[in-house]
UniProtKB/TrEMBL annotation:
Sorted UniProt keywords: Amino-acid biosynthesis, Aromatic amino acid biosynthesis, NAD, Oxidoreductase, Tyrosine biosynthesis
Group of enzyme by EC: oxidoreductase
Protein name: Prephenate dehydrogenase
All residue ranges annotated as the ACT domain in the record: 300-371
Positions of the Prephenate/arogenate dehydrogenase domain: 15-292
Recorded superkingdom: Bacteria
The species this protein was found in: Microbacterium caowuchunii
Catalytic reactions on record: prephenate + NAD(+) = 3-(4-hydroxyphenyl)pyruvate + CO2 + NADH
Length: 371
């Protein structure tokens, strides 16, 4: 049943949408469209996964007489091309898209098979979670996230509008790219970061328990995605191996250079090598889009928050009363401590008034810094 508020929203995806694959992405798309009143027909090779997604409200089970206007293929990369080929043949009246994280490999496979791809448009939402499956699906998973759409010279304007309309209905921002541009881009911003996080986190396995008690928010941030599913990432990395290897080779050379410098830290140029590495990292972080796609810098205020119910809500309420807009938030809990640290990013002009206002209301400020 659509929410009352959603009935007033102009939906760009009319008619039935068939979703093949009721895992995290497929079920999340289903939840978002169902909330908008769209008829969502779910299909999955796993009856248990399908029933779970239906029970959670991601859509209804697909029927043989369905005539969808749009088919979304949300299956693992190693079967994406097979499912696209089947759906193109079974639903010639529909536009078929997929949400696989690699675009070139399935496209080459389909072309080699001679599949008619005039009504197929590859796409990829840059969204996900460390956990998978229908139980982890969320209707807001795509809100504010980029959604790459890979068109070609045979793509009709109406078909393109349907896929881009899907992205917009889900709150995402559609971006047009070629399959090659997409695969090289995600190698840098998604696939290599996954490997780096996993390699760093793997160093914790043999580490003494006492050492790991020193872990703070920095190491948690850099290893958060290391909890991802190995089975899926073996497929993703194998399908996008060439651009991933190119980035890894460059990263390995940089790491070797820093290691060499630290082997002889007093040697001429060693400190410069280390400093340049940190400086280049600063420059790279500054290029990452921030809130609303802006490259803006913020001040970070670290507030001590008692570990009792309602304290975080009170903090946000009082920041609102002070007229302070929170641009970002991170929470850190120290093992054994009865308080947490709320790292709040605000506009530089708001930092001073925020600190003064919070301190006057009894909050303890641990530190402030440029973010």
């Amino acid at each position: 049943m659509p929410h009352a508020a959603s009935a007033r929203v102009a939906v760009r995806t009319p008619g039935t949408v068939r979703i093949v694959g009721a895992g995290l992405l497929g079920a999340s798309i289903g939840h978002a469209l169902t909330a908008l009143g769209v008829d969502v027909a779910l299909d999955d090779t796993s009856p248990a996964q399908l029933r779970l997604a239906v029970d959670y409200g991601a859509g209804r089970a697909a029927r043989p007489d369905d005539r969808p206007i749009l088919v979304v293929v949300a299956v693992p990369p190693d079967v994406t091309a097979d499912v696209i080929e089947r759906e193109v043949g079974d639903h010639p009246q529909a536009v078929v898209t997929d949400v696989a994280s690699v675009k070139l490999a399935p496209l080459h496979t389909l072309r080699d098979r001679g599949v008619d791809l005039r009504r197929y448009i590859g796409s990829h939402p840059l969204a996900g979670r460390e956990r998978g499956g229908a139980i982890a699906a969320r209707a807001d998973l795509f809100v504010g996230r980029p959604w790459v759409v890979c068109r070609d010279e045979e793509t009709s304007a109406s078909d393109l509008l349907l896929v881009e309309g899907l992205a917009l209905d889900l709150g995402a921002t559609p971006l047009e790219m070629t399959p090659d541009e997409h695969d090289r881009s995600v190698a840098l911003v998604s696939h290599v970061p996954q490997l780096v996080a996993s390699l760093l986190a793997s160093r914790f396995v043999p580490a003494p328990e006492g050492l790991l008690r020193l872990a703070g928010q920095g190491v948690r941030d850099t290893t958060r995605i290391a909890a991802s599913a190995p089975e899926l990432w073996v497929q993703i990395l194998g399908a996008n191996a060439e651009p991933v290897v190119a980035v890894l080779d460059e990263l390995a050379a940089d790491l070797a250079g820093v290691a060499d410098a630290l082997r002889a830290p007093d040697a001429p140029g060693a400190r410069k090598t280390v400093a340049d590495t940190i400086r280049r990292g600063n420059q790279g972080v500054e290029r990452l889009p921030g809130k609303h796609g802006q490259n803006r810098r913020f001040e970070t205020i670290v507030v001590m928050v008692d570990d009792t119910p309602g304290q975080l809500g009170r903090l946000f309420g009082e920041l609102g009363e002070l007229g302070v807009n929170v641009e970002d938030l991170r929470l850190e809990h120290s093992p054994g401590a009865q308080f947490g640290l709320a790292e709040i990013s605000v506009a530089p002009s708001a930092a001073g008034p925020a600190v003064a206002g919070l301190e006057s209301r009894g909050w303890k400020i641990a530190s402030t810094a440029n973010d």
